[in-house]
Amino acid sequence: MSWWDDAVHRAVAEAILIGALTGLVGVRVVPRRLSFFTMALTHATFPGVVAAAIIGVNIYLGGALAGIMVALGVAALSRNRGQNAAAATGVLLSGGFALGVALVATQDGFSRDLSSFLVGSILTVSTGDVATTAAVLAVLMVVVSVTARPMLFTGFDAEGARAAGIRTGTVDLVLLLSVEVVIVTAVPAIGAILAVALIVAPAAAARMFSDRPPIVTALAMTFGVLSGLSGLSISGRFNVAAGAAITLTATTVLLLSLLLTRAAALLQTRRTMTP
Predict the structure, then answer these.
(1) Architecture of domain 2-273
(2) How many CB atoms lie within 10 A of CB 82?
(3) What Å distances lie between residue 200 and 106, 115, 124, 176, 213, CA to CA?
(4) For residues 69 and 85, what is the distance between their CA atoms, to the nearest angstrom?
(5) Domain residue spans of the chain
(6) Mean pLDDT per 10-residue run, the chain (275 residues)?
(7) Which of 123, 120, 121 lies closest to 4 in space, CA to CA?
(8) For residue 123, how many other CB atoms are within 10 A of its CB?
(9) 47 Cβ partners below 8 Å, 6+ apart?
């Protein structure tokens, strides 16, 4: 019974930390319209995690190395506007996932562990996983604080930022590497593939209520934490996969936010039209 209690406590702590972490980086991804690139990173991280598990090294290391290589490629592609960059990134997304599946297929009896890399297993996270997530959150908060102005300027007007002396390529790379670190950190809890929803949905929902960066950041982190805790509760009550429950909860938060903001806008319009 004590094991179960400890597992639940770790899962709750991880849900809070992962929710805050993904919300924090998500508010930098959504305004830059990098959701598709984020998805490419999640798929490209998968083979690195699988390879690390096969070799017997830390999955964080394997996922990070794979993701860093892809982040460098995505950073280069994102500098080119137009269909070619998007098409190349789409191939990168599919190729990365296919490589992960191929690696799994080379190991007899290893396929049963595939779901843990894809959708995570938050009830089996270790104390080390929770500590790693907390450390990454602390470091990322510092990085976000230091790069807030150049990142905002670059996202709003890249040409103007370059004219002002900001190294926009470096700013883009810092953002993509931050996203990759978050994805790798989230693998034990929600998996590589589902991480993109928890990064994008809370941030997109937060932007519907405000356009001020501090408020959007606070709302996104709050929505992320609520999604994590609510999904974990739903998982325990209805015996469904925690990663899927957390992702569906985040999606529900986005849909409800859309409905609420549209209803509020419609009500405001009717009030202004009423004599």
Answers:
(1) Orthogonal Bundle (1.10)
(2) 7
(3) 33, 22, 25, 14, 15
(4) 16
(5) 2-273
(6) 67 95 93 79 81 81 80 62 58 74 69 66 90 95 89 78 80 85 89 88 94 93 95 89 90 94 85 71
(7) 123
(8) 16
(9) 66, 96, 97, 99, 100, 103
d(CA 130, CA 223): 20
pLDDT at res. 209: 93
CA angle 77, 79, 80 (to 5 degrees): 70
Phi-psi group of 165: left, alpha or beta (phi > 0 → left; psi -120 to 50 → alpha; rest → beta): left
DSSP class of 32: T
CA–CA distance from 123 to each of 19, 111, 232 (Å)?
A: 15, 20, 9
CA 260 vs CA 255, 263, 264: distances in Å: 9, 5, 6
176 Cβ partners below 8 Å, 6+ apart? Answer: 34, 37, 41, 71, 74, 75, 78
Which of 65, 69, 71, 53 is CA-nearest to residue 117?
53
- What local confidence, expressed as pLDDT, does residue 83 receive? 44
Distance of CA 107 to the CA centre of its chain: 29
- Tokens representing 263 are 């209803």
pLDDT of residue 223: 96
Residues 6+ apart with CB under 8 A from 228: 14, 15, 16, 18, 19, 198, 246
Radius of gyration of the chain (CA): 19
